[in-house]
Every structure is written in C-alpha cells, then in structure tokens.
Specification:
By secondary structure, the chain is an alpha+beta fold. It is 50% helix and 20% strand. It has a three-stranded antiparallel β-sheet, with helices on both faces. The protein is globular. 25% of the residues are buried.
C-alpha cells in the first residue's frame, strides 16, 4: 500500500496514465489456455508500450495446475525470474485465474530491473 501511495504522491500524472493491466491479464489468460508460453506476452508488449501515453515496464508470471493462490505465489517465489517479477516495483498489477491457469501482469511507469 505504501508503494502505491508513494507513486500517487510523487508521480500523479504517471499513476493516472497506467494501462488497464487487468484487460491485458484477461487477454493473456485466454491465450495461455491454448498456447502455453510467454510468446504472446512478448508479441503484445511492444504495441502496448506504443499505445500508452507513458512508457513503462510490463512483467508477466504464468502458472498452471494450481488450485490455491498461496501455492502459486509459493511456486513463483522459488523461481528466480518469477521472484524478481514479484519483487520489482510496480504501479499496477492484476492476477487472473481460470481452469487452474494463472496470469499475473504488472506494470510500472519506469524501467525496473
């Protein structure tokens, strides 16, 4: 919560320009049920960056065959690349799930490592 408040206080124009990450997560959730890979995310990211009024960093975590959210986050925490996505500073994020497929999309208005 502190992260979000800090972003709104320091970067109000960027915070209001955040893309709808839930719409992105919904689109990816449909895709990964048919094509299980990050390929769709990599195809989607450049057009999204061009379409938004602010540049930023998008991140994606995928999981499947999990029932509970806590188990998904535990698995992501054990993977170095997924854990980096979870720990990265983000201004907007959305988690979606259906039929044991999970998609987490995060976005920040600045480049993060």
């Amino acid at each position: 919560m502190k992260k979000i408040l800090l972003t709104l206080l320091l970067l109000p124009s960027l915070a209001y320009a955040a893309p709808d990450v839930c719409a992105i997560a919904d689109a990816r959730l449909k895709e990964v049920q048919h094509e299980w890979s990050h390929a769709g995310f990599y195809r989607m990211t450049p057009p999204l960056q061009q379409a938004t009024s602010t540049k930023g960093t998008y991140r994606e975590n995928l999981a499947r065959y999990f029932i509970k959210e806590s188990d998904v986050y535990a698995a992501w925490s054990k993977s170095e690349s997924h854990r980096k996505n979870l720990e990265a500073t983000s201004s907007a994020q959305c988690l979606r799930t259906v039929n044991s497929y999970w998609v987490l999309i995060t976005w920040s208005p600045y480049r993060t490592i």
